[in-house]
């Protein structure tokens, strides 16, 4: 199953196809900016197809829509004596069409120009409790579609009809936020996703708003199925097991509180203390009883309760930050039975089964490399928070992998 690249000009009219390249790499991301890069021989008719303001749509054979489309934003000429000889090579790259959402800010009043934003209600515009899909559609249409100010409208986008049943209701406050970044938050909390994708029939860009599909029973990755190249799981000992919190009292009146993760200490055989200075918590110690009391006589009973709650929450958060953690990384491959674009796409929930344990989560990113014959070299999905700066703590899942693996080794 191969790939092809169609080219459109700045008015979105199809101008040709590129079927000869040195390399093609692209990344599809869920509710984020994807990217693409193409290396082709310079001085050929195909190298002259892509112009400033134009772009490409990347297709996979057997799939009815492009996997990714976007404008060009980078040209780079290569010439070397060894590899990029003759006329040299041309490196062309860009972001996917989702980048349009990141080029717009959420005005306090989308119907007014910048110099009249002071007339809007402060501190920020409120998004009412409509469903997430409807809110995404409205914000994009009001910022770059036909409902936007004339000088903010982007031509050639088909917004379709407003979706009213996708996602969970949300309310939010907007104050010149990046709309793309804001939609990322809405997806994480309310389960509605979007993408901008080139439509070859209408020669426009379609806005698609969708709810992620649960494909966890149909799309599975495991060594037994032959669609995993590699997997790695890791268990890490805790960095903190005992948190001591110092509150607002001074000298001998200062109240100290300790919280212990006894389960982790027993499991890993370690005791690791950490001090947390929280003088903002208004508690001091009653030296007769050792219990926490009001640090200020003006505090009410509710203030005292709130301070105690803040204390236990601070200690719990510190333990969570330094707790034992586990994660695993998987490196799937395309097979005839399971292929990206045909059987699953970003936003779909899939299942990973390794060492007797199953884990299901959403595909958030897929990186694809295609060789000069149009054939797949590598397809690398990232499932769940794998590869992000904030990976989920999958300690329980990975611990189960370890236990089941040990049982299997014992039987063998």
Could you characterize what this model shows?
It is built from 6 helices and 23 strands. It has 412 residues and is of the alpha+beta class. The strands form 6 sheets. Strands 1, 2, 3, 4, 5, 6, 7, 13, 21, 22 and 23 form an 11-stranded mixed sheet that branches. It has a 3-stranded mixed sheet with strand order 9-12-11. The protein has a 3-stranded mixed sheet with strand order 16-15-17, covered by helices on one side. It starts with a strand and ends with a helix. It is globular and about 90 Å long. The chain is 18% helix and 34% strand. Helix 2 runs antiparallel to helix 3. It has helices at 99-102, 132-144, 179-190, 262-268, 301-321, 395-411, and strands at residues 3-8, 14-18, 23-29, 35-41, 55-60, 68-78, 89-95, 125-127, 157-158, 172-174, 193-199, 204-210, 220-221, 228-236, 242-246, 256-260, 273-277, 283-285, 292-294, 325-332, 349-354, 357-370, 376-383.
Summarize this entry quickly.
It contains six helices and 23 strands. The chain has 412 residues and is α+β, with helices and mostly antiparallel strands.
| Number of beta-strand segments | 23
Helix-strand topology string: EEEEEEEHEHEEHEEEEEEHEEEHEEEEH
Summed over residues and divided by their number, the pLDDT gives a mean of: 86
Shape: globular
Proportion of beta-strand residues: 25-35%
Catalogue the unreliable spans: 386-393, 407-412
Oligomerization state of this entry?
single chain
Number of helices: 6
**Secondary-structure-derived class:** alpha+beta
Terminus-to-terminus distance: 40 Å
Largest sheet: 11 strands, mixed
DSSP helix fraction = 10-25%
Integer-rounded radius of gyration: 27 Å
């Amino acid at each position: 199953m191969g790939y092809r690249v169609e080219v459109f000009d700045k008015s979105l009219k199809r101008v040709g196809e590129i079927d000869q390249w040195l390399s093609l790499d692209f990344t599809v991301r869920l509710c984020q900016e994807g990217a693409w890069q193409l290396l082709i021989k310079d001085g050929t008719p195909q190298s002259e197809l892509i112009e400033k303001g134009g772009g490409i749509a990347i297709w996979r054979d057997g799939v009815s829509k492009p996997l990714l489309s976007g404008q060009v934003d980078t040209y780079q000429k290569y010439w070397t004596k060894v590899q990029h000889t003759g006329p040299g090579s041309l490196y062309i790259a860009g972001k996917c069409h989702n980048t349009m959402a990141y080029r717009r800010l959420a005005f306090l009043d989308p119907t007014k120009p910048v110099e009249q934003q002071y007339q809007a209600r402060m501190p920020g515009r409120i998004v009412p409790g409509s469903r997430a899909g409807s809110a995404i559609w409205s914000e994009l249409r009001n910022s770059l579609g036909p409902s936007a100010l004339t000088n903010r409208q982007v031509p050639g986008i088909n917004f379709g009809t407003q979706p009213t049943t996708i996602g969970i209701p949300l309310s939010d406050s907007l104050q010149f936020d990046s709309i793309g970044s804001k939609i990322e938050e809405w997806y994480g909390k309310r389960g509605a996703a979007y993408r901008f994708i080139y439509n070859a029939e209408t020669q426009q860009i379609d806005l698609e708003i969708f709810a992620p599909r649960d494909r966890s029973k149909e799309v599975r990755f495991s060594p037994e199925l032959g669609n995993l190249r590699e997997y790695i799981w890791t268990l890490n000992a805790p960095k903190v097991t005992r948190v001591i919190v110092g509150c607002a009292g001074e000298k001998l009146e200062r109240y100290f509180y300790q919280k212990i993760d006894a389960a982790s200490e027993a499991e890993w055989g370690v005791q690791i203390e950490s001090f947390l200075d929280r003088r903002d918590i208004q508690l001091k110690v009653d030296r007769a009883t050792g219990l926490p009391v009001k640090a200020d006589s003006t505090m009410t009973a509710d203030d005292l309760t709130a301070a105690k709650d803040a204390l236990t929450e601070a200690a719990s958060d510190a333990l969570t930050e330094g707790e034992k953690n586990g994660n695993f990384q998987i490196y799937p491959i395309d097979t005839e039975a399971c292929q990206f674009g045909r059987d699953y796409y970003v936003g779909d929930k899939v299942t990973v089964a390794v060492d007797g344990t199953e884990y299901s989560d959403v595909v958030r990113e897929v990186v694809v490399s295609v060789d000069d014959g149009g054939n797949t070299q590598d397809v690398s999905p990232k499932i769940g928070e794998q590869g992000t700066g904030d990976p989920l703590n999958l300690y329980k899942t990975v611990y189960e992998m370890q236990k089941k693996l040990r049982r299997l080794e014992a039987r063998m």
